[in-house]
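Following up on my earlier thread - several people asked me to post the actual chain instead of describing it. Fair enough. Here it is, all 281 residues.
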Amino acid sequence: MDLIPFIVGLGFLLVASIHDMRTREVPDLVSYGLLLFAIAYGFAKSIVLWNWVPMVQMLLGLVAMIALGFLLYYTGQWGGADSKLLMGLGALLGLGFGTIDTVLFLVLMLLAGAVYGTLYTLSLVVKEWKVFKPAFVKEIRRPLIHRLRKIVLVLGFLLVIAVLLTPFAEKTILVLLLVMLYFLFYAWLIVKTVEKSVLIKTYPVEKLTEGDWIQEEVKVKGKLICGPKDLGITNKQIAKLKRLKVKKVVVKEGIPFVPSFLLGFILLWATGGFVYRLLPF
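Reply from S.P.:
Thanks for posting it. Predicted structure:
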């Protein structure tokens, strides 16, 4: 990646991350600003070098991330702001004709996101401990969870027996499997509890912003205004709620994910050269 797009991309992602952390939204000015710069830079580089490759790389990266962004948005995996940023980054990083920066970014973003998401969730547990603790106890006593715990315990017991009966060389793998089994189960349970007890909140309608995820259906005189099946509430729906004098709605807050974009982008700059040296082309 060239220095200029890195500096500009870093600036846009810093602003986007700060907004996402503070308000759970990213201004369109930031998302579209990054996209316009990336497109302009791709065309300008082709003109300066008198080579069509940078322009095509930019367009391929843009098209690939448009497809991925729409897929993730319409399957409810993340909001529109994340998808718009992804499009801009795809155009900025490019794809094909000797560059896989976009692919490397996605891999590094997911790795960084896993660590960031874990730390963020743990910070919510600590911050909301008085709310989280009774909710976790209630969740772990649910019949379905209780049955799953029994299954995990049985699998763990079988792995312990396998560790005792296998040669030393294979013990390490089995021990790792045992640790991962318990870690993944309780990590999933903690995340599930955080989603139910900490991230679901009642918002005044005046506080709603476009893209907020409505957790419970809002009906007025039997007519559905908005609900969890929507891909985020729209400004039109918010205006209708205000017009109908609806005071409060139940919203599911998400973990701000844009900082993962920033971390993945920085990791790409730091490690991209090393990765390319390992590749055969």
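The first helix runs from residue 3 to 23. That should answer part of your original question.
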